[in-house]
Design brief:
The protein has 912 residues and is mainly β. Helices cover 7% and strands 45% of the residues.
């Protein structure tokens, strides 16, 4: 990619639109290389996002700005992280290789909150540098997929304050924000101080059914019960398969003489509006009917920096504070088996008890959705505090530059889940009897024995809103987890020209780094005691490691014929010594050829690493709920009534492994950039990438476990739990291991053109800027050694965890003059198959496959405007997804397509 395109300047709007588009700007240190030298073309592809990209779409955080890049998979967003404990985090996932394989830096250094960009104030960002190739030799572990370097502003002057707000076309998704910044020089210009803060409150989208193709969608049989027609269809309003049986929010009697009757709020009965034979319609309830469409979040960020020039050196200290919080409904407790209710339960009306007695019926089963009593609520607060000190300078007549820093950061998290069902208390409370005219728990009714639980209060399950506050307090509990992650990091680097060859100076950069990571996680006494229906925080954690590293990089010019050809070779190596796994090398070698000053050819080959993080090594047991395709269907599909090969609510538990080793990635990039001298302002680049990761750390998916079980792997069978009646998978247990391999390859394309309007007419002002970015993914294969090995590039259904669209792209056009600016952007997301596994097998006689397996592409249009009312006062407005393009049908939350719909935002800013 063009390594410095779209770099933000600090001048007027017109100057910003025409910001430096050349690689000769020595003030820009592009993240793909440690070497900063005039005329040096670093061979690693890099994309730079500046002022235009940062403001397009009025995104609420840095992560969502990056998610608009075609190379980034929006794996964790407020629309995807509903119903799981990643809500409130904002990591980056380059190439879809996983958030842990994308290294995020702040001003070129690691920071404690790197995996949650909610901690970074977007209003203080100068630019984003995105390395789209392996860069471990330059920057260390985690850069297998690439690097995102967030460059903050360090030269602010004056005071600025701004405010923003937004709302969807459906009246939800409200967002409010404000920011302020101040900068000043002192001591005759030797010193500089800046401080800024930012606040954003995003209310999320509470109702999935407010959006087309969301809500209770599921895969169901086209012809239930048929052995000749095994085809499936993805449809809306499926209320049978989500919970495994017909259930009602008011309580449905599912056995005996009153089967098919549902309770009214006054305790009387009515006939239940049942689903059809495929589980569609009726008054039943599906799990995702009670799950948010987009999780709300709130964040506050503050940043301050003090620097002072002392001779040929600048000493600096900066401090950051970030707070990210979310408080929202999680999921209802879907694990409650239909309880058995005694026919003498005093909460039943006398008429109902009489009918049961007349039929000789002593009990019945109750199908109920507990979205009133046990709708779990996830409340988390994550705080990041960090201080860094450093020095940057030069010596030898500025021939050599040096830098050094030390930082200490901590991220503290407090996660609280309320409305949890206490299993034993629930069982006690639903067994109610009458004693002395009072309704009491049966365990306390026998006067001849000691009370088993004096705190027990009987629970009325018949109709919503009929349970007493005392009984609710008795059957519900709260789970809490507290964690602290610490990062201490230090680094020193020296760079300079050591001597000159026939083609120019030989430049080297050498240095050393070290870091110490530590994590501690604990639980409160109630969580330690356990007894929850859905245990989320099941173990404590205490662990850490340290690493000491040395690195070097060299830029070697081989040939320089003025205006004809320039050849450079670039190499880098890093040795990393981990306290837990020992020493390991990473390296990179690359070269560039600049022809006639217009055409740049480049290639790199690298060996990159990703060491296991504390989460991989010592992570607390986690829970994820989502859909899967059961690949162990023999003797079940078409045989066992109620069996579902595509359950939508499988619970997968995962945890860490202290014996993990670093992953090893091999990356090849080959590309070219062309900036014709006869068309100043135009740039085009094309880069091919091929990445292979060996010994990848992975938690085996439930689908892979079921397949391994079908092949006779008893260990895999032992990790799968099935419903004893229907044999549908309900739970999978796995842990992290170096068992996977990952391969991906594709092509990145970027084109940009900057046109000064004065070129068209002497009286015309301002500039036009066009930029197009596109990525084609030819292959994405992740294997855990369990065949078949699938290329999931082109699988775009939400049930395919590793799927990627074949094509993604953006095209933006911007007009900017000193007072007015217009932005127009088109975002394209390719279609594909919902799941390639769900296709008809021509080798079998029976019809099968998913009949609506094809998902069409989506194209979104975003518009924006900015204009100055006064010299110091600017107004702005944006409309995203102007034409309200609907997402495809999804069972949970599709990461690839917009589910919000048309969204309006506006803002104002004053500078003094």
């Amino acid at each position: 990619m063009a390594q410095t395109s779209a770099v933000q300047s600090t001048g007027s709007p017109a100057e910003e639109a025409g910001a430096n588009e050349t690689s000769e700007d020595t003030s820009i240190v592009v993240t793909g290389s440690r070497i900063a030298r005039a005329g040096f073309d670093q061979p690693t592809p890099t994309t730079v996002l500046g002022d235009v990209e940062l403001r397009q779409g009025a995104r609420p955080n840095i992560q969502q700005v990056l998610n608009d890049l075609p190379q980034v998979r929006p794996t964790v967003t407020p629309q995807v992280s509903v119903g799981n404990t990643s809500a409130g985090t904002a990591p980056v996932d380059l190439r879809g290789l996983g958030t842990a394989r994308t290294l995020t830096l702040l001003n070129g250094r690691r920071f404690a909150g790197e995996n949650n960009l909610n901690f970074v104030p977007i209003s203080l960002v100068e630019r984003l540098e995105v390395v789209t190739g392996g860069a471990s030799a330059a920057w260390g572990s985690g850069a297998v997929a690439g690097v995102v370097n967030i460059i903050l502003k360090d030269d602010l002057e004056g005071f600025a304050v701004g405010g923003q707000t937004g709302i969807s076309s459906r009246g939800d998704g409200m967002r409010y924000g404000a920011d302020a910044s101040f900068g000043t020089s002192f001591a005759g210009g030797n010193g500089h101080f800046i401080v800024g803060a930012e606040y954003v409150d995003d209310e999320g989208i509470p109702d999935r059914n407010s959006r087309p193709n969301l809500g209770s969608a599921a895969i169901v049989r086209v012809t239930p019960g048929s052995l000749a027609d095994l085809r499936n269809e993805l449809v809306r309003d499926v209320n049978l398969s989500a919970f495994g049986t017909n259930q009602s929010v008011d309580g449905l009697i599912t056995s005996g003489v009153l089967a098919g009757q549902v309770f009214n709020s006054d305790g009387t009965l009515r006939t239940f509006a049942a689903t059809d034979s495929r589980g569609i319609g009726g008054e039943g309830r599906a799990l995702y009917d009670d799950v948010l469409a987009a999780t709300p979040f709130e964040r506050f960020n503050a940043y301050a920096r003090l620097s002072y020039d002392i001779g040929g050196a600048k000493v600096w200290i900066d401090g950051t504070y970030g707070r990210a919080a979310t408080d929202a409904k999680f999921v209802p407790d879907f694990t409650i088996a239909p309880p058995t209710i005694q026919a003498t339960n005093p909460f039943l009306s006398s008429a109902i008890r009489a009918r049961l007695a007349a039929a000789g019926q002593t009990s019945f089963t109750l199908g109920r959705v507990y979205n009133d009593l046990f709708l779990l609520n996830f409340d988390t607060v994550r705080e990041n505090k960090e201080v860094a000190v450093g020095i940057d300078g030069s010596f030898g007549g500025e021939r050599f530059k040096y830098s050094a820093y030390y930082s200490h950061g901590e991220v503290e998290s407090h996660q609280t889940v309320t409305n949890n069902r206490m299993a034993a208390q629930f069982a006690n409370a639903i067994n109610a009897v009458s004693m002395n005219g009072q309704v009491v728990c049966a365990i306390n009714a026998d006067a001849s024995t000691a009370n088993d639980d004096p705190a027990c209060r009987p629970l009325n399950l018949f109709g919503q809103g009929n349970a007493s506050a005392e009984s609710i307090a008795y059957v519900r509990g709260t789970q809490q987890s507290f964690s602290t992650n610490k990062l201490d990091a230090a680094g020193v680097e020296v760079q300079g020209d050591i001597f000159s060859l026939w083609a120019g100076p030989v430049t080297v950069a050498v240095g050393a780094e070290a870091r110490w990571e530590e994590s501690v996680s604990t639980r409160d006494a109630a969580t330690l005691a356990g007894g929850f229906g859905i245990p989320l925080f099941t173990s404590d954690l205490a662990g850490g490691f340290n690493v000491k590293e040395a690195f070097g990089e060299i830029a070697l010019p081989l040939l320089d014929v003025s205006d004809t050809i320039r050849l450079d070779v670039n190499g880098a190596a890093r040795y990393s010594d981990y306290s837990n796994s020992g020493g390991i090398w990473s390296w990179k070698v690359g070269g560039t050829a600049r022809l006639f000053d217009d055409l740049l050819l480049r290639a790199t080959k690298s060996r990159d690493i990703r060491s296991p993080g504390i989460g991989d090594l010592f992570s607390v047991r986690r829970i994820t709920v989502g859909a899967l395709v059961d690949r162990d269907t023999a003797g079940r599909a078409g045989v066992i009534p109620g069996y579902n090969a595509t359950p939508a609510t499988v619970t997968t538990y995962s945890g860490g492994n202290p014996d993990l080793q670093p992953e090893i990635g091999k990356t090849l990039t080959i590309g070219a950039s062309y900036a014709p001298s006869f068309m100043r302002g135009f740039n085009v680049s094309v880069d091919y990438y091929d990445i292979e990761i060996e010994g990848a750390i992975a938690t085996l998916s439930a689908a892979n476990l079921t397949f391994a079980c079908s092949q006779g792997n008893q260990a895999a069978c032992d990790r799968i739990t099935r419903d004893p009646t229907t044999q549908t998978v309900v739970e999978a247990r796995a842990n992290a291991q170096n068992v996977a391999s990952v391969q991906t390859r594709g092509v990145d394309v970027e084109m940009s053109y900057l046109l000064q309007m004065s070129q068209l007419g002497a009286n015309m002002g301002g500039s036009l800027r066009f930029r197009a970015l596109a990525t084609y993914v030819d292959r994405y294969i992740q294997s855990t050694g369990v065949p078949p090995i699938l290329n999931t590039a082109g699988d775009v259904g939400d049930a395919v965890a590793l799927g990627l669209p074949k094509w993604r792209g953006t095209f933006g056009a911007t007009y900017q003059d000193s007072n007015l600016g217009f932005d127009a952007r088109v975002r394209y997301v390719d279609g594909g198959k919902f799941n390639q596994l769900l296709i008809d097998n021509p080798a079998t006689v029976a019809l099968e496959g998913l009949i609506n397996n094809e998902i069409k592409s989506r194209t979104y249009v975003d518009l924006g405007i900015q204009f100055k009312v006064l010299d110091s006062f600017t107004l702005s407005a944006n409309v995203n997804n102007v034409f309200d393009v609907a997402p495809p049908i999804s069972t949970a939350g599709n990461p690839h397509y917009d589910i919000v719909g048309t969204y309006f935002s506006m803002g104002a800013r004053v500078k003094f």
